């Protein structure tokens, strides 16, 4: 069975500082990996995803994540955060080869708190 | 893009009544839709998966007679909470995935806040 662990429940950081949100997964098969962001009282927005190809994926707002198969990790990074990045971040994994039609397994979420 | 809408965004109802929530994919055909429930400060809990024209597949512990799911078209799925009770109060979120460029990725709606009095 697959599982996702987000190691930090809360990450406080000052504005313009770098940040890393950690995500590890367990799976015996190849996976698709996702990061979603949720602002208060809203649904989830896709931040970035790894399906295949280059292991480094980037979003349009400066986030990036690197798929590391040997360490089974997909950590999210940003070199300089803004106040507007304050939100809940979810890491998720799916098994592209399963019969579960893309069912996602979510991590517990990490609250990024950007302070001025 | 991939836009998914939900209606209503919030609803308050009396205990014992039924509430219907709609989920629509606005710019792509959603072959599969998912319904989640989220409690405050927690992650999403998958309730059921529905494929267009088929019966929904419910996760263990989710009462299919209480949470009725219909996926009648490639752009619309509905979740009806029947005989709602205060413990059903929650944030309900749908997602949709399709074929082609949208394959392999779920796109989420904005969520519906249900409060049962």
What distinguishing features does this structure have?
heterodimer; A: mainly beta; six-stranded mixed beta sheet; four-stranded antiparallel beta sheet; 12 strands; globular; B: 117 residues; mainly beta; seven-stranded mixed beta sheet; 0% helix
Describe, in plain words, how this protein is organized in 3D.
The complex is a heterodimer of chains A (116) and B (117). Helices cover 0% and strands 51% of the residues of chain A. Chain A is mainly β and 116 residues long. In chain A, strands 2, 5, 6, 10, 11 and 12 form a 6-stranded mixed sheet that branches. In chain A, strands 3-9-8-7 form a 4-stranded antiparallel sheet, with no helix packed on it. In chain A, strands 1-4 form a two-stranded antiparallel ribbon. In chain A, β8 (64-68) and β9 form a beta hairpin. Chain A is globular. Chain B has 117 residues and is mainly beta. Chain B is 0% helix and 54% strand. In chain B, the strands form 2 sheets. In chain B, strands 2, 4, 5, 6, 9, 10 and 11 form a 7-stranded mixed sheet that branches. Chain A binds chain B through residues 32, 34, 36, 41-46, 49, 51, 90, 94, 96, 100-104, 106-109, and chain B through 2, 4, 6, 32, 34, 42-44, 46, 49, 51, 91, 93, 95, 97, 104-111, 113.
């Amino acid at each position: 069975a697959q599982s996702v662990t987000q190691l930090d429940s809360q990450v406080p950081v000052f504005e313009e500082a770098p940040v890393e949100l950690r995500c590890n997964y367990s799976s015996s098969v190849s996976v698709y990996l996702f990061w979603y962001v949720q602002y208060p009282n809203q649904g989830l927005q896709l931040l970035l995803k790894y399906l295949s190809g280059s292991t480094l994926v980037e979003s349009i707002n400066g986030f990036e994540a690197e798929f590391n198969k040997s360490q089974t990790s997909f950590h999210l990074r940003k070199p300089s955060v803004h106040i507007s990045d304050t939100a809940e971040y979810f890491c998720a994994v799916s098994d592209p080869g399963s019969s579960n039609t893309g069912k996602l397994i979510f991590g517990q979420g990490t609250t990024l708190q950007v302070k001025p | 893009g991939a836009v998914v809408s939900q209606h209503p965004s919030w609803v308050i109802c009396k205990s014992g009544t039924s509430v219907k929530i709609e989920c629509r994919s606005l710019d792509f055909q959603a072959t599969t839709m998912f319904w989640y429930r989220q409690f405050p400060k927690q992650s999403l809990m998958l309730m059921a998966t529905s494929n267009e024209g088929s019966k929904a597949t419910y996760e263990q512990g989710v009462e299919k007679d209480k949470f009725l799911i219909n996926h009648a078209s490639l752009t619309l799925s509905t979740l009806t909470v029947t005989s709602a009770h205060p413990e059903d109060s929650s944030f309900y979120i749908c997602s949709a995935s399709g074929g082609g460029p949208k394959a392999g990725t779920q796109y989420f709606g904005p969520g519906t806040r249900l409060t049962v009095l």
